[in-house]
Amino acid sequence: TSGAGLLCPVGQVYRCNLPETDEVGYDCGPGSGCVDAPGCVEDSCAEPWAAVDANDGVVSCALDPSAWCDLWAQDCGEFAKCVPWNDDPDYGGSWDASRCAPLVFDPVPAGAACQVYAEGTRGLDNCGGNGICLFVGLDDQGTCVAQCDGAPDNPTCAEGHLCHINGSGVTQLCLPMCDPLADDCGSGSVCLPHWQGFFCDYDASGDYGVYGDPCEYANACDPGLACLSSQYVPDCEASGCCTPFCETTAENTCPGAEQGQVCIPWFEAGMIPEGYEALGVCGIPQ
Description:
Elements: E1 12-14, E2 34-36, E3 49-53, E4 59-63, E5 80-85, E6 97-102, E7 113-115, E8 132-134, E9 141-145, E10 149-151, E11 154-156, E12 161-165, E13 172-176, E14 189-194, E15 197-202, E16 225-229, E17 240-247, E18 262-265, E19 279-283
Antiparallel strand pairs: 1-2, 3-4, 5-6, 7-9, 8-9, 10-11, 12-13, 14-15, 16-17, 17-19, 18-19
């Protein structure tokens, strides 16, 4: 078996429909033991555990998705983690809530390759600790990313990482720092600005994102380019357009140099993080 409180190994599920006992408290979950799949069927698991149908059709028992939790406090108990998820029954969209998710039998650490067991926004994966599986490809393989520790007003991450809290506060992720001039985030990722530096996140540019292309979000431009307001980019007819990062100490190689673009310092004086002293972006001075 998996041992009390741990998710069963891949290919097995919790034994269901056991007599309810004071020690277990419900029919399917920690302490009930594991059996070969499909030992658990839809609707056979009593709350607070519920049946979850993974992409491969195997039904397993997971924490009741109605149980809200605190991502910062990680208050799901010893054998589960609080993760962001999407509560849309059609599994669509981005994260919009939090839930308790069971820890797997043999979890993998932050930075390691990981696997999702359902849609990527459902919060079911094999990452340990408070980690979640991100940057997932078509093979359902991704990389474990730790969530930030501490508190919203004082977040902490491991060395070499920055805490990125999204606008809705639903996710707080420790993402690796990067150099926007070095293109060091890897395939499918892009180096994005943070007030303490830059971090790697999803590249959402698709077929667009080159110099002069319209953009609305920071990750809508190709690696090495930033999304700036239209007044900084010549002939930009959208609210924002992509323009390259540059070095303020180097020769002006901005694509719009003939139209007044120069390498403008990215950070304000006195607020420059270590390692970004010469970082600039091609723009028309305002």
